[in-house]
Amino acid sequence: MKLLIDECWEYQLLAYPNPVVGAMVVKDGAMIGVGIHKEAGTPHAEVLAIKNSFYKLTSNEDILKLENSNDIHDFLYQNHNNIFEDCEIYSTLEPCNHYGKTPPCSKLLEIMNFKRVIVGANDFGQNSNGGNKLLKDSNIKVTENILNNDSIALLKPFSKWIENKPFVFFKYAQTLNGAITGGYISCQKSLELVHKLRDKIDLLVIGGDTVRIDRPTLDTRFIENGNNPDILIYSRQKNFDKSIPLFDVPNREVFIENNLDRIKEYKLVMFEGGDKFLNLIKDKIDALLVLNSTSLKNRNNMKIDLDLKLDNMYQNDKDIVMWFQKVTY
Ligand SMILES: [Zn+2]
Q1: Distance 46 CA to ligand 1 centre (A)
Q2: Ligand 1 mean position to 228 CA, how many Å?
Q3: Distance 69 CA to ligand 1 centre (A)
């Protein structure tokens, strides 16, 4: 389960407003197939894990041609032949129990008749919970909520979305010794991650000084068909040179304001900046994303005091990506 959660963190926020969910089918203690729900509108993690496992167990290539969740459900209903009855399935989140665009995963697990279902965190979405109960009512053994504390940070953006509150995080890039100035610090893969995140957020907040000095574009050019977020320039001084590229990006609104009230109108908000900006707004954020390069540079370093708790870290090509939450006393 810990491995699944770690894998999910590599896609954190990219399935927004859905949570990133991981699932894994196990037979006789060996992993058969894994699925990660990493983009809204694609099949859920359990469906992908079962699809991959079906192919592994049967070598039937027909299922590999199916991308649509409904088609995978139908195919499995007709062809499963009870091959999963001696398998267990792990899922980081309680299987959904809601007929939406696709039938619920709870129904699929029930029909596949798994020996046991192991759930990381019980679901708190009103439309989707009840999956565990449906399975137990069908005499499937369910081990619930085994990693609730570990997975709760991963699910925080989803829980804020359910509460109708924005999820707000601050992103910055630094070298191993905390230098934050002097051109691009991150590797190409981390720059792409930032652009994937900009595609998912709906508001990007940046300090006025950064806009004046860096003259940024703040778009999504490193990925295909990315949406460009609205921009809030947090500044007392309202005059900006409108030839700065960020003002020229299509399909975006740019606000210049000396308060952060606008955040409440948005769902997913990213701040980008350095230590001065972070110091100023640190009480407003839910999470901190640090892209740590593995180089050392003799430049200006982060000057800030902030107590953090590490939620996850992983290697992203040449960089280390770290997700933190603030320590609250
Ligand atoms: Zn589902």
Answers
A1: 7
A2: 29
A3: 10
41 Cα to the center of ligand 1, angstroms: 11
Ligand 1 centroid, distance to 185 Cα (angstroms) = 38
Q: Ligand 1 centre and the CA of 113: distance in Å?
A: 16
The three-class DSSP label of residue 193 is: helix
Beta-bridge mates of residue 255: 232
Q: How far away, in angstroms, is 122 Cα from ligand 1 center?
A: 13
Mean pLDDT, the chain, rounded, equals: 94
How do residues 162-186 score in pLDDT, each as one tens digit?
999 999 999 999 999 999 987 789 9
Q: Within the chain, what is the greatest distance between any pair of CA atoms?
A: 69
Residue carrying structure tokens 């770290």: 322
What is the C-alpha separation between 204 and 170, in angstroms, rounded? 10
Q: Rounded to an integer, what is the distance from CA 125 to the centroid of its chain?
A: 17
Question: Taking the CB of residue 266, how many other CB atoms lie within 10 A of it?
Answer: 18
- Which residues neighbour ligand 1 (ion) by CB within 5 Å? 44, 96, 105
Res 182: pLDDT: 77
CA 61 – CA 155 distance, rounded (Å) = 34
Q: Can you say whether the dihedral through the CA atoms of 65, 68, 71, 77 is positive or negative?
A: positive
Residue 210 corresponds to which tokens in the numbers above?
A: 């950064």
Q: Which DSSP letter does residue 64 get?
A: G
DSSP string, 120-139: EE----TTT--HHHHHHHTT
Residue 226's pLDDT band (cuts 50, 70, 90): very high
Query: What pTM was computed for the model?
Result: 0.93
305-320 pLDDT, tens per residue? Answer: 999 999 999 999 999 9
Task: Say how many Å lie between the CA of residue 174 and the centre of ligand 1.
Answer: 37
* Per-residue pLDDT tens over the stretch 133-155: 999 999 999 999 888 677 788 99
